[in-house]
Every structure is written in C-alpha cells, then in structure tokens.
Write a structure and sequence with these properties.
Helix content: 55-70%
CATH topology: Arp2/3 complex 21 kDa subunit ARPC3
CATH class: Mainly Alpha
Distance between the termini: 18 Å
Shape: elongated
Strand content: under 5%
Largest sheet: 2 strands, antiparallel
Number of strands: 2
Order of helices and strands: HHEEHHHHHH
Number of domains: 1
Length: about 220
C-alpha cells in the first residue's frame, strides 16, 4: 500500500509540476517532444501502393497530448509541422515540406489539442477505456479526416486525374487501421498508468472521481 501511495504521489507531483511550469519551460518541453516525434517518424514501413508510409508518429502524438496536456500538446505538434514545412527534415524518411502526408500532420495538431483538453479537464478521461475511446476518435477522425482530404488534393495535383473514394481508402486508411488500433491500445494503457487519478489543476469532475471505479 505504501508503494502504491508513493507512486500515486509521484504521478500527481509530476503532472502538477508540469502544469505549473513557466511558459519558456513549457515551450522547451514542447520543442523536445516535437523532436521525439521527428525520430518516431523515421520508424517507418513503406506501403507499395501508397505514398503514405506506416510510421511510429501516431503513437508519439497520442502520448504527447497526454503528457503535455491542454494546449501544449497542440503547440508541440504545431512546432513539428511548422518547422517541417519550413524545411527542417524531420518528417518520415528525413523529408520536409507539404508532401502526400501533409494532411496527417495537420491532424496531429487537432488530435493533440483534443486529447490534451480531455486529459487535463476530466479525471474520468484518464481511465483505460475512456482514453482508448478518445484516442481512437482522435486517430480515425481527427487525423485520418484531414489526412485523406489532403491526400486526395495531392494526388489530383500530382496525377492530374480524379482519385476514386475506394482507391483513396486503400492508400490512406485501410493499410493503417490495425496498426493504429494497436498503437491506441498501447498508448491508452501507458496513459492509464502514468496519469494521476486525482485533480491537479481544478478538473471539472474533481468532486466525483472518488465515487467512480477507474479501470
């Protein structure tokens, strides 16, 4: 019991300390996480029929949102995307610029803002199943949505011909479903383990969490 209590205190202190960091320190942390996402982008597997590779980025984005919290997860992804567009070569394959995957990068920002908001605002969101549901929504709606829209425009510009919806799904969605579900499950399990189950910044459900079972 003492060990469990010490672990809970440590998690609380870490997240409370993160919340209370000065803006320059939060910015430095956001830049560091952006660099980590850049490294995860190099863990990639090429899909022969698609210009979009399978990478470790999504896993990093999901956890970055939880660890950096409201706003700063999004700021970190904006730094990653903005500097990559400005020719810092840390997109997949050490590339840069708005190529075929530009829409997914935009989706990373949306997903991080979404997950960071819920993580910081609701204690209940830090359960495994709540976090998994949020992460799956972030992956398949907030990341895939702008990802395939941009991919369609990019393919139209490159090939100068329309791309069918089925072909778009085969290139930009279907090859990644199993991997992204697996990454979301792992990220949700890690998030469940590292996040405090007590209020550290005035969460709106701070008076209710103690009566809930948080699996």
């Amino acid at each position: 019991m003492e060990i469990a209590a010490a672990i809970d205190r440590a998690k609380y202190n870490i997240f409370r300390g993160r919340y209370e960091l000065s803006v320059p320190k939060k910015l430095a942390l956001a830049v560091g996480v952006a660099g980590l996402i850049g490294l995860l982008a190099q863990v990639r597997f090429l899909v022969p029929w698609s210009p979009v590779p399978i990478t470790g980025q999504t896993f990093g984005v999901l956890l970055a949102a939880v660890l950096l919290g409201r706003w700063w997860g999004g700021v970190s992804m904006a730094i990653y995307g903005g500097l990559g567009i400005a020719r810092v070569p840390w997109f997949n394959g050490w590339s840069s610029g708005m190529g075929a995957t530009g829409g997914y990068i935009i989706g990373f920002i949306l997903a991080a803002l979404f997950l960071g908001y819920f993580t910081d605002k609701y204690i209940r969101s830090r359960s495994f199943f709540s976090m998994l549901a949020l992460m799956l929504f972030a992956s398949f709606i907030l990341i895939y949505g702008p990802g395939i829209l941009w991919l369609k425009m990019w393919l139209g510009a490159v090939k100068a011909e329309p791309v069918t919806f089925v072909a778009l799904l085969q290139m930009g969605v279907i090859p990644f479903i199993a991997g992204d579900i697996t990454k979301a499950v792992l990220a949700a399990a890690i998030a469940r383990g590292v996040t405090p189950k007590s209020a550290f910044n005035g969460e709106v459900d701070k008076d209710k969490w103690a009566t809930w079972r948080i699996p």
